[in-house]
Amino acid sequence: VHAAVNAILNKTRESIKGCTIYLTHFPDNDCVHAIIEAEIREVVYLKWKSCDDDDEKDERIKELLDNNSVELSREIMREEIKEEKDLKVVTELEYRIANKSDADANKAARTMAISWEQFFMGIAELSKTRPGEEKNPKIIVLWKVLNGFFRSSSKGAAMMNHYV
């Protein structure tokens, strides 16, 4: 699922009719259909495309948006950004798009992070006990996290006994 479709499906309010959606890239066919269905009135995108330009397809998308009264504009105008925090977000987004290769350079900084497998196994371990089935759910969470990540039941048991 594309980010635009995901954002529309997981909206935080009942209706997003008449809203503006901000995208990092020019919308594709799936995104455009979701945008029209949600009755969004403006699409603002930052970058045209990373590759595979198809002018005929892009023209059809523009025509489809125009026929449904959806405005399409490229880039966020810096003059319209009022808050410094928002400007920093836009600047960072532009930087990340321009410097994709920097992501690999930061791998060394992430060496202390747990793996996805450890993360999801930890979540599964935490999820298997329902709150209320034990005396104190907070202590159970502490116990399972300590036991799951430190792999030392004596340390986990000592911590649990300390908090009980």
Essential attributes:
about 160 residues; mainly alpha; Cytidine Deaminase, domain 2; 2 domains; three-stranded parallel sheet; 8 helices; 3 strands; about 50% helix; dCMP_deaminase-rel; Cytidine_deaminase-like; hydrolase
Give the gist of this structure.
This protein is mainly alpha-helical and 164 residues long.
Structure overview:
- By secondary structure, this protein is mainly α.
- The protein has 2 domains: about 5-100, Cytidine Deaminase, domain 2 (3-Layer(aba) Sandwich); about 115-164, no CATH class.
- The protein has 8 helices and 3 strands.
- A 3-stranded parallel beta sheet has the order 1-2-3, sandwiched between helices.
- Helix 6 runs antiparallel to helix 7 and helix 7 (about 135-150) runs antiparallel to helix 8.
- It is extended.
Mean pLDDT, nearest integer? 69
Low-pLDDT sequence parts: 136-164
What is the terminal separation in angstroms? 45 Å
Tell me the number of helical segments per DSSP (H or I, 4 or more residues long): 8
Largest sheet: 3 strands, parallel
- Name the CATH superfamily classification of the largest domain: Cytidine Deaminase, domain 2
Beta strand %: 5-15%
- State the total count of DSSP E strands: 3
Please give the CATH architecture of the largest domain.
Answer: 3-Layer(aba) Sandwich
**What class do helices, strands and sheet pairing give?**
mainly alpha
Give the helix proportion (percent range).
40-55%
Q: What is the CATH level 1 assignment of the largest domain?
A: Alpha Beta
**Overall body shape:** extended
CATH topology of the largest domain: Cytidine Deaminase, domain 2
Main sheet: strand order: 1-2-3
Tell me the radius of gyration: 23 Å
User: What is the succession of H and E elements?
Assistant: HEHEHEHHHHH
How many domains comprise the coordinates? 2
